[in-house]
Design brief:
Layout: H1 2-14, H2 20-39, H3 49-61, H4 66-85, H5 112-120, H6 127-142, H7 146-151, E1 157-158, E2 163-168, E3 171-176, H8 179-196, H9 216-229, H10 238-251, H11 256-263, H12 268-271, H13 280-289
Antiparallel strand pairs: 1-2, 2-3
Helix pairs in contact: 1-2, 2-4, 5-6, 6-8, 6-10
Length: 293
């Protein structure tokens, strides 16, 4: 099975062009499944739907969340579909297996005042503060995922037109950058980044104190630090800024389709979750003004 898994991982990386994080998720899920079937003395190409059901039950018994089990099943399903097409397995054992129901959680969102308070914290008094100011402003202004932000190169940002080109696997989208974010970004690129980098060939837009591309963990630590400085009790992650970006756009009149495009959602159903945050004042105005409300 190990040989076939490596071929599958190569297929995902080289042909499907999945992101590094997605590839790591596949590897974690499938290595765990491989360990399970080895412990039970099974051959991967002889697994039936009953064994898949037992594996799901096992995952539930060891306390895995429905979302984790569902993702794991999706990884296993993709692997067996690949193996079926490659003629290594006669039948996909995951066919007809239902994923556990996942209760949709309401995304955590900051108020406009909380966002303003957070973005006020980094000061342009040193190189790091200039970078942090630009990065937080940029995260809220574009709604981009943390992986997308740290993967950006300087060449992906057009300071003249005020747009950033976001590449995610084979997909690419262009997102506008607001004036306040653009101002902070120019300040960082022109007056801080050049001093922070140690290698003139470094392409990364956001770099750490060693002059190398910033990591996910580095980004999370920066947000946590400024959250504490702002004395905001809510948990704030890069994804909370993304949720806040979408919610505030919707509350201020942006249409759902445009928000979907900016967020890079392939399905508008993913974007519709923000509808629950529609400003109550709009509903009140409607009820008072519409003759049949």
């Amino acid at each position: 099975m190990e040989k076939q898994l490596n071929l599958f991982f190569g297929f995902l990386e080289n042909e499907k062009k999945v992101s590094t994080n997605t590839l790591q998720s596949y590897k974690r899920d499938l290595k765990q499944f491989e360990k399970y079937i080895q412990q039970n003395g099974e051959n991967y190409n002889e697994i039936t739907d009953e064994e898949i059901k037992k594996y799901i039950k096992y995952m539930q018994e060891i306390g895995k969340k429905p979302s984790t089990i569902s993702r794991g099943l999706a990884s296993i399903r993709s692997f067996y579909q690949y193996e079926t097409k490659s003629k290594n397995v006669e039948k996909d054992p995951t066919e007809g297996i239902q994923s556990p129901k996942i209760e949709k959680r309401v995304p955590s969102v900051l108020t406009s005042n909380e966002v303003a308070l957070l973005l006020e914290q980094p000061k342009n008094v040193d190189l790091k503060g200039t970078r942090d100011k630009a990065m937080l402003e940029f995260a809220y202004a574009t709604g981009m995922r943390v992986t997308e932000i740290i993967s950006l190169n300087v060449s992906d940002v057009n300071l003249e037109t005020g747009y950033v080109t976001c590449k995610s696997g084979k997909k690419e989208r262009t997102v506008p950058v607001g004036n306040m974010s653009l101002k902070a970004l120019k300040e960082y690129i022109l007056n801080a980044r050049g001093t922070m980098i140690k290698d003139e060939n470094e392409k990364a837009l956001f770099v750490n104190v060693n002059g190398q591309r910033l990591t996910r963990q580095g980004f999370w630590k920066i947000i946590k630090y400024y959250k504490e400085q702002a004395h905001i009790e809510k948990e704030i992650t890069p994804h909370v800024l993304r949720h806040s970006f979408a919610t505030h756009l919707l509350q201020n009149g942006a249409d759902l389709k445009s928000i979907q495009t900016m967020l890079g959602h392939s399905d508008i159903l993913s974007t519709q979750i923000y509808m629950q945050f529609q400003d109550e004042s709009l509903k009140n105005i409607y009820r008072k003004a519409h003759p049949r409300a």
